[in-house]
Each structure stands twice: as C-alpha cells, then as structure tokens.
Write a structure and sequence with these properties.
The structure holds 2 protein chains of 2 kinds. Chain A is mainly α. Chain A has one domain. Helix content of chain A is about 60%, strand content about 5%. A two-stranded antiparallel ribbon of chain A has the order 1-2. Chain A is elongated, with a radius of gyration of 20 Å. Chain A starts with 5 loop residues before the first strand and ends with a strand. By secondary structure, chain B is an all-alpha fold. Chain B has one domain (about 1-45, about 55-110). Helix content of chain B is about 75%, strand content about 0%. Chain B has 5 helices and no strands. Chain B has helices at about 1-20, 25-35, 35-40, 60-85, 90-119. In chain B, helix 2 (about 25-35) runs parallel beside helix 5 (about 90-120) and helix 3 (about 35-40) runs antiparallel to helix 4 (about 60-85). The longest helix of chain B has about 30 residues, at about 90-120. Chain B is flat, with a radius of gyration of 17 Å. The chains are: A mainly alpha, B mainly alpha. Chains A and B meet through helix 1 of A and helix 4 of B. Chain B: It is found in: Membrane.
C-alpha cells in the first residue's frame, strides 16, 4: 500500500488513548506558541530597526517575504488530510488520481517552507552581514532567520502530532 | 475569592499604564481578555453530518489561535520593553495583571462547565 510513499509510524505503546489525546492537544498549543514567538521576534527586529537612530539599512518588503512564504507553506502543509496520501486507487481506470495531487500539494507546501528558510538566510547574508553600519544590524538580520526556523518547527510539530486516520499512532509521511 | 483577584489584576494593569503615563501596555490586557475566545468558539463545533468524525480538526484551530493570542499578550509588553518605550516595572505589572485576569476567567469557565456537566 505504501509503495511510493515512505511512512514512518512512531507508535507510543506506553501511552493510553486519553493520554495520547492530551498529548496531541498540548502539541497544538506548543505549535501555536512557536508560531507566535517566531512572528513576534520578527516584529521586534523591525521595531528595533525603526527605533535605532544610526541604523544604516532600509527595511523593505523583501524582509517580509520569507516569513509570509513559510506561513503559506505551513497552511498548505497542514490543510492536507494525511489519509488521502495513501489512498492509492490511481491505477484503476477512471481513478481520480487524488493521491498524486495531494502529494504535489504537499511538495509545494514543503518547498514554500524550505524556500522561506533559504530566503531568510540569503537576506541575512546579502543585506545584513555585508554592511554592518550601525548597532543592532546583526540582531535584526538574525530575527528573520529565527522567524522562519520557528515557523518550520511549528509546522513540523503540528504535522507530526495531528490526528490521522488511526488515532493510535503519530504518522510522519515523507515522499 | 476570585473577584478580588480579578480586581487586583485590573488594578495592576491600569496602574502599569497610569503610573508611567503610557497607555500602550493596555493592549496586552485586551489580548489577555480575548485569549479564551477562539477556544470557546471553535471548541463547541458540532456537526449533523453522520459521516464526519466526531473528533474534528476545528478544535485544533481554536487551540492554535488561543495559544497565538496568549503568546502575543506576553510578547507585546516585552517588545515595548526591549525597544525602550515602557519601563521594566510597567511590563512586569502589565503581564502579571493580565495573567491574573486570564486565570480568573479560566477558573470561572472551568467551574461553570463542570457544574453544567454534573447536574
């Protein structure tokens, strides 16, 4: 059934069902915590940049792009129902090819998150590390990287511990 | 017992703004007051659809948004403190006052829901 998809099931047999339910609930809270911390770090960096008098670098829209990309990727990745990905009826005549479309959507989401991280690193290296004209420049550059990394960890937590078709295991699906 | 705690929370949060003449930390208290709202809205979702699962992902959206608003309520005074807009004690008083208000609200809602289930 899982021919083209690598599915890693991390079972926690020592956990009862109610404890697993609680664990999933607190994982969602923790994911929201990480997401909020990431965006607020970024806003803190922007406000610091605005309020430092000798800040040599102009803040533009390109600083916002990696975080927005990572957030869109997080929304796409976590909107996918994981039970659809192993729904492999695409070889039948007239099959809906739903699984392959879901895999394409998952790929786009993960690519958006990875692109956000790569973009934030690129902005840090090109824009901030090159010309350190004032103080707090490195801090503002690092908050962008911390933002995308925290958003990706938040997405990973939400994805790993969401409820899948069988609530007795946490599924981690890789393509 | 809970209403004096609530009053102390409001007193602390208003003092944190009024003593220093800067009313920006009050936004944190507004966030603390609105923090349980997504959980209470999304948590009551029920559907008439028989085919859909009883446990839905809608409650997870509520938990995510509640956690996001709580983190914002903590992070706003800390950001203002980091920039230097407000004093250290204003940030501490704002966060502790908002936290007292939030704890009171959660205690009340927990008591009332428990009573409703038990009758």
């Amino acid at each position: 059934m899982h021919d083209s998809v690598f599915v890693w099931n991390c079972r926690f047999p020592w956990l009862s069902t109610s404890a697993r339910e609680q664990f999933s609930k607190y994982a969602t809270y923790f994911s929201g915590f990480l997401f909020g911390v990431g965006w607020w770090l970024f806003i803190d960096g922007l406000v610091i940049a605005k309020n430092t008098p000798d800040f040599g670098i102009k803040i533009g829209f390109e600083d916002w792009v990696p975080g927005i990309l990572a957030t869109i990727g997080m929304i796409i990745t976590n909107s996918i129902d994981m039970s659809l990905i192993s729904d492999d009826n695409s070889f039948e005549y007239g099959g809906s090819r739903l699984a392959s479309r879901v895999k394409l959507l998952l790929f786009i989401g993960i690519a958006l998150i990875a692109g956000g991280i790569a973009g934030s690193f690129a902005i840090l290296v090109i824009k901030y590390l090159g010309n350190e004209t004032g103080k707090n420049v490195i801090y503002t550059g690092l908050t962008g990287v911390a933002q995308t990394i925290l958003i990706s960890i938040s997405s990973f937590v939400l994805w790993l511990f969401n409820k899948s078709e069988s609530s007795t295991e946490f599924n981690f699906v890789l393509q | 017992m809970a209403s004096p705690v609530n009053a102390i929370g409001f007193l602390l949060s208003i003092l944190s703004c009024a003593l220093f003449g800067n009313w920006l930390p009050f936004l944190s208290v507004v966030l603390f007051v609105f923090a349980p709202l997504p959980n209470s809205i999304f948590g009551r979702y029920t559907t008439n659809d028989v085919l859909e699962d009883a446990v839905s992902n809608v409650a997870d959206i509520g938990r995510f948004l509640t956690s996001l608003i709580l983190v914002s309520a903590f992070a706003l005074p800390l950001m203002l403190l980091h920039v230097g807009t407000i004093e250290f004690f204003a940030a501490v008083m704002s966060i502790s006052g908002g936290l007292l208000i939030y704890i009171t609200m959660m205690t009340y809602s927990w008591l009332f829901t428990r009573e409703r289930i038990e009758y």
